[in-house]
Amino acid sequence: MNHTQLLAEGSGALQGFRFPLLTAVFALIVSYFLTPLVRNMAIQQGAVDDPASDNRRVHTKPIPRWGGLAIYGGIVVAVCAVMPFAHPQSTIFPHYLIAMLVIAGLLVIVGALDDLHQYKAKVQALVLLAAGISVQFFYGEVGRVQISTLGIPISGPASYIALGAFAVPLTAAYIFVVTKTMDTIDGVDGLAAGIAAISAATLIVIAVYSHQPRVAIVAAAIAGSAVGFLRHNYNPAKIFMGTGGAYVLGFMMACLSIVGALKTAAAVSLFMPVLVFGVPIADAFVVITRRILSGQPITQADKRHLHHQLLGKGLTQRQTVLILYAAAAALCAVALFVVRNTHV
User: Fold this and answer.
1) What is the pLDDT of residues 112-163, one digit of tens each?
2) C-alpha distances out from residue 195 to 179, 278, 279, 342, Å
């Protein structure tokens, strides 16, 4: 084992976490300093969220969007800076990772345009489904973003069902759901960025425990970049991540969970997304169910989200965010406990 491998492995409590920690710090710094520049650009281009546009807004003055550009910048710079040192003796940037970064970049652009032009829900759905389908066709010897099998939770780690031709649409649907729920939960200062940081941190631990160092490094870039942006997005927010930010965080974490968390034992793999992305998924489930029961279209915006319900009970934005942070952290803690105590 050479010096670089020893550094990557580490020792004691830091075993396997050295490069992910370095990546997270790098991404945090880049995102933190890039966000004010993006904020100024958003103001100049008119990418501003006006609270008078509808009654769902909880802020009282116009706030610039496009924070997703800073988040994406932090992720890309950190991954490109650290990955060559972490894997000098092997494929540094596998095809699936290149595809993730490129497609995420396209989603940032689409999201930035959506912040200006407010595309219809059908257009956004087609874009996300196209992203979820296309990323599956870029792969090599190292990894692939595709759910090719499903674990049978009652039969142990060796029991899987091959999906065959259903793998592509199922994977695309999964990526769409995770990405869209990250977008819909972005309704209170700091909520989506904080939830993303918690979920990405969980993916880091799962990846390290499952001996997937690349997944850990990319997840660390997501977590660090989200935290760097959160410094400007926490209540009272100076900038919003916008559609592009939610798309990047949701898309990349969905892809990473497929490469990483869904490769855990069959007994728990089906439950990983529900735990790691529990709060956004639960929020979407509750909202869609209520809309269906009331006879409204599921795409119609309203104030049925969890954060709206908590705000309606008299809680402040910060109290609401902290409660949902705690819920997300609790679910992620359960996920880590289950993975740690299940053979992978």
Assistant:
1) 999 998 889 899 999 999 999 999 999 888 888 998 887 665 544 556 778 8
2) 13, 10, 8, 25
Q: What is the pTM of this model?
A: 0.90
Q: What's the token pair of residue 311?
A: 């705000």
Cβ atoms 7, 85 nearer than 8 A: no
Q: What is the mean pLDDT of the chain?
A: 86
Distant-in-sequence, close-in-space partners of 227: CB < 8 Å, separation ≥ 6 = 24, 28, 31, 193, 197
Q: Which residues pair with 341 in a beta bridge?
A: none
pLDDT of residue 97: 95
Q: 193 and 201 in contact (C-beta within 8 Å)?
A: no
Whether the bond between 236 and the residue before it is cis, its omega within 30 degrees of 0, is yes
Residue with tokens 């359960």: 334
Residue 61: per-residue pLDDT: 82
Q: How far is CA 86 from CA 18, 211, 247, in A?
A: 10, 13, 27
258 and 235 Cβ atoms separated by less than 8 Å? no
Pick out the chain residues at pLDDT < 50. Answer: 1-12, 155-156, 344
Residue 159: Cβ-neighbour burial (10 angstroms; 0-12, 13-18, 19+)? middle
3-state secondary structure the chain: CCHHHHHHHCCHHHCCCHHHHHHHHHHHHHHHHHHHHHHHHHHHHCCEECHHHCCCCCCCCCEECCHHHHHHHHHHHHHHHHHHHHCCCCCCCCHHHHHHHHHHHHHHHHHHHHHHHCCCHHHHHHHHHHHHHHHHHCCCCCCCCCCCEEECCCCCCCCEEECHHHHHHHHHHHHHHHHHHHHHCCCCCCHHHHHHHHHHHHHHHHHHHCCCHHHHHHHHHHHHHHHHHHHHHCCCCCCCCHHHHHHHHHHHHHHHHHHCHHHCCHHHHCCHHHHHCHHHHHHHHHHHHHHHHCCCCCCCCCCCCHHHHHHHCCCCHHHHHHHHHHHHHHHHHHHHHHHHCCCC
